[in-house]
Design goal:
By secondary structure, the chain is an alpha+beta fold. The protein contains 7 helices and 12 strands. It folds into 2 domains: 7-133; 150-260, GIY-YIG endonuclease (3-Layer(aba) Sandwich). It comes from Vogesella oryzagri.
Length: 270
Amino acid sequence: MDFTRRTKFVRHKDKQCDLERLYLNDQLDIYQAAQSEPVFADCEQIVSFIGTEGRHAKFVGVYQVQGVAYRPDGRWPDGYLYAAQQECWPYHYSLQKDSRFAELEGRLVIDWGGAALAWHQWAHDKDKEVVAILPPGYVTEFPGYLDFVITYAELRKIIANPVANARWHQMLAAVAGVYLIVDSESGKQYVGSAYGKEGILGRWKNYAANGHGDNVQLQALLAADQRHAAHFQFSILRTLPRGMTDKEVIQVENLYKTKLGSRAFGLNAN
């Protein structure tokens, strides 16, 4: 990296939207190109990160700043995940990603330092400690069966990278259970169950493959918009022993459908 050029470190952190979701859906570049002030106008390149826990930040790319346009009536591009709830700022930058650093994207984690609120800093006098270099395809640590909500993009990455996410594969395959899919755009819920040799892992592999898991109402959503699966969020409502019969697991599934009203008001057709 050429630090003789005017370079800024940038650590994105936003309460309005899920930046990891944007990154996994290839939309973080859209997000960072729009700014409320001309923060990149005086630099030639930016080294971009997503803020994670504490002072840590995950590397997402090096970008050449090629220009800026002021458009006070600017709009987000079609398909941007947070177009409805996030203001589009008037300074629109043309940013070109440097492909030479692609192997470290999503893997290099640094300590940003004490000035966490200073989200853009000149790089020439700032040393950043490398905390970790994660395996290729790594998503996150498995936190426990009932302690996570993952996006469809995260699910696909977990399934596609079994070595980097070995703990997820091991734990999800170990149990049967009842799971929940929430459409974050409409708020509607789908309750499903998983059983058989690979437990929850085996069932979720189907969703990773086609987005809808062969469920009627989810299929309809994707038929209307093939990108709609990006709005799906996955979690587990209850784990069950993998030795339970299919009928016993489905009985528990039906109980949760009744509790949550997912037939009358959600995405369950049966």
